[in-house]
Each structure stands twice: as C-alpha cells, then as structure tokens.
C-alpha cells in the first residue's frame, strides 16, 4: 500500500518536463512555427514547468535538414532565437539519441549553450555508447538523464545490469520509458521499485516517460509518483508519437505543489493545439495503437496504418498478430 502522503502532499523533488516539441515533433516532422514555440515557452514559464525539451540533437549526416523543422537539430543559435539567454527558472533540455547524433561535434560546452539538460536515449544493447555520451555531456557541464527505451520487452535481469552500469556513470536521472504503451500500473509499481532501489544505491533520481496506447499514460505517471518517482514527462494535449503521452493538463491538475498552474496550459491548448488538429496533424489514442500496445509491439505499423488512412481495424489486428 502506498503512503497516502505521496499522493496528497507534494515533494519538492518533483520535476515536470514538457516534451511537446520533442515527442510531438515526431508527429509533424518538427515543423512548428516560431510563434508556437515561443508561446509554448511562455506557457511553461507561467505554468511553473521545470524543464522544456526543445527536440533532438539530430545528426545532419543522417537526417536531411530540408525535411525537418529546427527542433530536429536544436542548434544553440535557434534556441537563443526563442529563449535568449533564458534568465528564468525554466531549464532547457534536448535529447541525444544513441546512434542518431554526433554528440562530440554538435553538443558544445555548457558555458557556450542555452541548454541545461542532455537527455540520452538508448536501447539496452546500446548502453556502452550511452555511457560514453553521458560522460561526454557531464564533462561539458550539463545535467544528464538517460531514457532506457522499450523496457516492456526487456528481461528484468538485463535491466538490472543496465541500471547498475548507468549507476556507476555520472548520469543524474534514470528514466522508465514505456515506449510501446504496454505497461499496466501494477507492473509499473514493480518496475519503479527496481529503478528506485538502484537510484538509491547510486544517489540518482528516477523519471517516467509514458505512452498512451492503452490510455494509461496518466495512470502510470500517477502510479510512479506514488512509488517515489520524481521526474515526470508530459506533453500538451498528449501530443506525441502515435498514441501520444501523459497530458500536461492532467498532470498539473493532479500535482499538489502550488508552484504549478494549469491555466496557462489550457490557454495554450485553446490557441494552438486545437489549430494543429484542424490543420490535419494527427496523434492520440485510437484502435490501431491500442492493438500494438496490447501486443507489446513498436507502434510503427500503427503509425503507417494511420498515415494510409486505413479503417480496417480487424484486418490490421490479424496482420500484426502474424508478426508477434
């Protein structure tokens, strides 16, 4: 049984991370207007959000700059065009994806950049490279988190080994990432216990990044809060790859810390998120994402199903059953 104080009280260690531009950018190839990005930045400031993730540090040798908006690459000059020197309490984050960024070249020293936090994203088999990226970012002066992706497909013994390796690195935060939206709250509680145990051993923090394939992103995030997880990812209107993520408006409405204010989030959604949907940008829960979540599969097939405008859900289910 959880301590009721972990749900009804607030912990000063709680950090809310807005991932709208990064995870949401996967839906529209990061083509956000400057007005959208600046208004989101100001909404986060007013809402009391702790970190704003602007996107990826994508490698231009791998990704054609003409096919993506600036948040795919998060150049320091672009970030400054939005936040200036960011003399605020809101910290700036970017994601460095193992194998998809040139971190030694494109991540500059912290003293030369408006970025505060580097979020290293890795699969289990990439952990050695992730550690090198963590060490590189730390030497350059950044806070560093590590998102271990697709853990719903991992063996617990492998996960323990990975967390032990990361624990010995200078990383600040381990992230639980339900990439496929396949994890249920009861499972999340056991996973959080493992992560928190390893975090306590090495003096780290634990975060959660949830996907909404089974409409459990918010439920799993609340579960994590009750289990002692402190860093919480969310996006405005749940905008994110496929089924999307934990909704910022739900999370800030739930958290008891008076520093958080949901009103600026609602105002931003009214002005911008509704417009995005009207313009044809598609994300959020639907049957195809439920199916991949139920089967613990990557949602790439469901994303293609959506792009193709298909509605033959039963046939799609048979197709992905054959792949399972």
What would you note in describing this structure?
44% of the residues lie in helices and 14% in strands. With 324 residues, it is α/β, with parallel strands linked by helices. It has an 8-stranded parallel barrel with strand order 1-2-3-4-5-6-7-8, surrounded by 5 helices. Helix 3 runs antiparallel to helix 11 (263-278), helix 7 (156-167) runs parallel beside helix 8 and helix 8 packs across helix 9 (217-226). The mean pLDDT is 96.
Describe the structure concisely for a colleague.
With 324 residues, this protein is an alpha/beta fold. It folds into 2 domains: 274 residues, Aldolase class I (TIM Barrel, Alpha-Beta Barrel); 37 residues, no CATH class.
Number of domains: 2
Give the total of beta strands.
8
Q: Determine the N-to-C terminus distance.
A: 35 Å
Proper CATH architecture of the largest domain = Alpha-Beta Barrel
The portion of residues assigned to helices is 40-55%
Q: Remind me, CATH topology of the largest domain?
A: TIM Barrel
- Overall shape: it is globular
What amount of the residues lies in strands? 5-15%
> Quick one: CATH superfamily of the largest domain?
Aldolase class I
The helix/strand series, from N terminus to C terminus, equals HEHHEHEHEHEHEHEHEHHHHH
Biggest sheet architecture: 8 strands, parallel, barrel
- Derived from helix and strand composition plus strand pairing, the structural class reads alpha/beta
Poorly predicted runs? none
Q: Rounded to an integer, what's the Rg over CA atoms?
A: 19 Å
DSSP helical segment count? 14
Strand order of the largest sheet: 1-2-3-4-5-6-7-8
Averaged pLDDT, please? Answer: 96
Q: Would you state the CATH class of the largest domain?
A: Alpha Beta
């Amino acid at each position: 049984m959880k301590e009721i104080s972990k749900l009804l009280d607030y912990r000063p260690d709680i950090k809310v991370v807005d991932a709208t531009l990064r995870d949401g950018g996967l839906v529209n190839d990061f083509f956000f207007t400057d007005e959208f990005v600046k208004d989101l930045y100001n909404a986060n400031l007013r809402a009391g959000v702790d970190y704003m993730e602007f996107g990826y540090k994508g490698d231009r040798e791998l990704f054609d700059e003409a096919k993506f908006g600036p948040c795919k690459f998060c150049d320091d000059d672009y970030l400054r065009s939005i936040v200036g020197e960011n003399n605020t309490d809101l910290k700036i984050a970017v994601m460095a994806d193992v194998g998809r960024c040139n971190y030694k070249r494109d991540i500059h020293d912290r003293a030369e950049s408006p970025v505060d936090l580097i979020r290293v994203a890795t699969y289990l088999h990439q952990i050695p490279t992730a550690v090198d990226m963590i060490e590189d970012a730390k030497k350059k002066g950044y806070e560093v988190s590590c998102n271990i992706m697709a853990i719903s497909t991992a063996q617990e013994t492998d996960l323990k080994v990975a967390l032990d390796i990361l624990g010995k690195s200078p990383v600040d935060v381990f992230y639980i990432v339900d990439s496929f939206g396949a994890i249920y709250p009861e499972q999340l509680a056991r996973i959080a216990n493992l992560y928190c145990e390893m975090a306590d051993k090495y003096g780290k923090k634990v975060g959660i990044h949830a996907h909404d394939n089974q409409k459990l992103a918010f439920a799993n995030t609340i579960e994590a809060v009750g289990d002692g997880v402190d860093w919480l990812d969310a996006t405005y209107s749940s905008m994110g790859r496929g089924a999307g993520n934990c909704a910022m408006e739900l999370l800030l409405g739930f958290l008891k810390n008076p520093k958080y204010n949901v009103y600026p989030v609602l105002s931003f959604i009214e002005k911008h998120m509704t417009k995005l949907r009207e313009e044809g940008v598609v994300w959020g829960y639907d049957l195809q994402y439920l199916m991949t979540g139920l089967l613990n599969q990557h949602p790439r097939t469901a994303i293609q199903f959506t792009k193709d405008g298909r509605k033959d859900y039963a046939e799609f289910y048979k197709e992905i059953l054959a792949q399972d």
